[in-house]
Amino acid sequence: MHRFYIILISILIVSFFNLHAQQMPIDFSDSSDSFGAFGGSSFSIIANPDDGNDMVGQFINYGGNPWEGFYLDLASPIDLDFQKEISLDFYSYNASGHQVMLKLENGSNPDVEVSIAIPNSGWTSGIVFDFGNAVLSSDGTTPVNATGTYSRITVFVDGGSAISGTYLIDDIDDGSTPTDPHALDVIYTDLVWSDEFDTPGKTAVNSSNWFHQTQLPAGGSWFNGEEQHYTDRIENSFVENGMLNIVAIKESFTDQGETKQYTSARLNSKFAFTYGRVDVRAKLPFGDGTWPAIWTLGKNINEDGAYWDNQGFGTTSWPACGEIDIMEHGLGPVNHTSSAIHTPSSFGATVNYASQEISDVANNFHIYSVNWSPDQITFLVDDVGFYTYNPSTKDASTWPFDADQYILLNIAMGGVAGSIDPSFTQSPMQIDYVRVYQNTALSVESKTLKDLKVYPNPASNIIHIDSSQPIDTIELFSSIGLKVKEYDATNQIDVKSLSAGIYFLRVWSNDQFGVKRIIIK
């Protein structure tokens, strides 16, 4: 739930970008293989005229611009250090020769291109573009043995000539094997906290698990131009028939000296954690202007009226505390849910954003998830990953996600979500469960050994371990939970032989233990 105004055009631009992100090989078997068209051209996916069961890309130049073209942004870049050659099949409807150019852009090295003359009509299969014999795109003439990675492939047919024509392309292949760009790097299996909402009858929300955040921010209104009061009334949040109901209601309501025309609820979890997986099975409210959200904030956020701030943890302003938006709806078309990351490096109209269309969110339950490891944050819907945040540089600006976050559930009204339907009366977000999983052996919270100290951290040579209790055993785990080493009865360990990265130390004293996250430089 973005705490500053989000410019909707930014969302639409980013959503468009995400629609045109794919990996090789490209066989046009689904819409994610769609190229973007520019310069007046157009693109579509159609059936192969020689095989109705095979889908191919249709590329149309209209002749109004000599540089009509087509591009595809790749989630997994082309690696010319792995293979120099890219092949494809090309179809022409006429016998006139055509010049086909492949250009590689957005790379680790300057843009490069290869052109091949194709003389035949019909299909010409297995045309090989050798980027070991490419030219620099900057001048179109300087030879180069191209190297490095490139995340955009651009196609021109008869580039430089204002010639109209329709062409088909199929099976663009760089020799790579498809991978899942959203593969989870850590699988969390131990259920450490949950609310199943299974109390009988109609009851209030479990106050041991949840806190109602109702205090208005300074200025008398919630962020982003929202129009609701959040309340702790049972009308706005209750448990019934195995479901948590958060209900947005159209009603005149006065609180804290402010009168507003809508009420809702905003819940803060009284559980905070570092790393793990969150699963929330939910059905979303219906109606223009509703803005449901499932999200997290840093426990250290300085936000008056928030649960953890009330407990004395509020030391850090937003967005330095970090925000993980697991699910939001209402920022785009109906049934488009989105996920986002807010950090000091990008917040509000954040570039770290993705959305997708899923089926009938107001009538169907879906499981909205985030998998948060020390190295990446992956968002999933119904256990299918669709967006991963993994900045190459992880520091306070890009990665404030090495400390506790807590869960928020709410429905906002209006503001960035747009005009509220005048006929709106009320609608709930229904939640079947909220579950948090971790690998408890790697929990970064100490178990009993409260005075456990590890230093220096980060380290490159020797790490010292201090505790008031005698140390029996020290276990060293990788970031994905694999045991790397074990040490007996020592207060220091030598880490010079270890690869740089994130590790966990589990320190045992009798039947007590503590866990500390360490960084090896």
- Give unreliable regions as ranges: 2-21
Spatial separation of the terminal alpha carbons:
35 Å
**Shape verdict:** globular
Structural class estimated from helices and strands:
mainly beta
Q: Count the DSSP helices.
A: 2
Q: How big a fraction of the residues is strand?
A: over 45%
Describe the structure.
By secondary structure, this protein is mainly β. The protein is built from two helices and 37 strands.
Element layout with pairings:
Elements: H1 8-19, E1 21-23, E2 36-38, E3 42-48, E4 51-62, E5 69-79, E6 85-92, E7 98-107, E8 112-118, E9 122-130, E10 134-136, E11 143-144, E12 149-157, E13 164-173, E14 190-195, E15 210-212, E16 228-230, E17 237-240, E18 243-255, E19 258-264, E20 266-273, E21 276-283, E22 290-298, H2 307-310, E23 323-329, E24 336-342, E25 353-357, E26 366-372, E27 377-381, E28 384-389, E29 405-413, E30 426-438, E31 453-455, E32 462-466, E33 473-478, E34 483-488, E35 492-494, E36 501-509, E37 512-520
Parallel strand pairs: 1-5, 16-19
Antiparallel strand pairs: 2-5, 3-4, 4-13, 5-12, 6-9, 6-13, 7-8, 7-12, 8-10, 10-11, 14-30, 15-20, 17-18, 18-19, 18-30, 20-29, 21-26, 21-30, 22-23, 22-29, 23-24, 24-25, 26-27, 27-28, 31-32, 32-35, 33-34, 33-36, 36-37
Q: Outline of this structure?
A:
This protein is mostly beta strands.
Core attributes:
2 helices; eight-stranded mixed β-sheet; single chain; globular; mainly beta; 37 strands; 521 residues; ten-stranded mixed β-sheet
